[in-house]
Amino acid sequence: MKIDAIRRSYTKDKLDLDKLNADPIAQFELWLKDAIATELPDPTAMCVASVDSNGQPSQRLVLLKDVNTAGFTFYTNLGSRKASELSENPKVCLHFPWHPLERQVIVYGTAERVSNTQVMQYFLSRPKESQLAAWASEQSRPISTRQALMQKFAEIKHKFEHGEVPLPSFWGGFLVRPHQIEFWQGGEHRLHDRFMYKKSESGWQIERLCP
Ligand SMILES: Cc1cc2nc3c(=O)[nH]c(=O)nc-3n(C[C@H](O)[C@H](O)[C@H](O)COP(=O)(O)O)c2cc1C
């Protein structure tokens, strides 16, 4: 398969300092709105990169469930690879790959666990099947067959047939507090626009980066 000639030009938009919001979260919300309005698949999906105690990075997609001045929130299994890596080393990097808009956003920050009340609120808002699946899956652990997983799911479904599904103690969320956020807009001839926001004591500073 020949792939070296696969390429395209990026001409959709331009980014300049005077077009940017002084607050990166407000800027992010504008771009997220565009991603949602464009109806690209999974507009809230972000790649979360974590690093283990040997310095080995790993990454995976998760869904952003909240963004506000404090940061970016997602939910997951607390026994998963990402959760155990983040509890040892909270340094994290998020990536939003909005290709159809010729944009990407990269967030550098620190992850902390969100409160049980917040986790509970979100868990209760999920469809019942997703709540049951959270109970059935020992995320990131080996399992012999898909059948074994379905069997576990059926048992859990039976167990919680009546009433609300309780919040599993091994399920939770992370808030990523950002200290740097980059906005990238594809440009003609690979001369892309990149702006890095850096948090300082006096607020957010913005600098343009070479593409
Ligand atoms: C579009 C998409 C959205 C996903 N959303 C989540 C999510 O919100 N939370 C989650 O734990 N896993 C989510 N996953 C699954 C993760 O990518 C990953 O497989 C899982 O969390 C286990 O990761 P880990 O073993 O690296 O911890 C999603 C996968 C995709 C492709």
From TrEMBL:
UniProt-listed Enzyme Commission number(s): 1.4.3.5
Domain Pyridoxine 5'-phosphate oxidase dimerisation C-terminal: 171-211
Residues binding substrate, per UniProt: 65, 122, 126, 130, 190-192
One Pfam family from the record: PNP_phzG_C
Keywords in alphabetical order: Flavoprotein, FMN, Oxidoreductase, Pyridoxine biosynthesis
Domain spans labelled Pyridoxamine 5'-phosphate oxidase N-terminal: 32-158
Reactions mediated catalytically: pyridoxine 5'-phosphate + O2 = pyridoxal 5'-phosphate + H2O2; pyridoxamine 5'-phosphate + O2 + H2O = pyridoxal 5'-phosphate + H2O2 + NH4(+)
Binding residue positions for FMN: 60-65, 75-76, 81-82, 104, 139-140, 184, 194
PANTHER family membership: PYRIDOXINE-5'-PHOSPHATE OXIDASE, PYRIDOXINE-5-PHOSPHATE OXIDASE
Subunit architecture: Homodimer.
Family to which this protein belongs: Belongs to the pyridoxamine 5'-phosphate oxidase family.
Name listed for the protein in its UniProt record: Pyridoxine/pyridoxamine 5'-phosphate oxidase
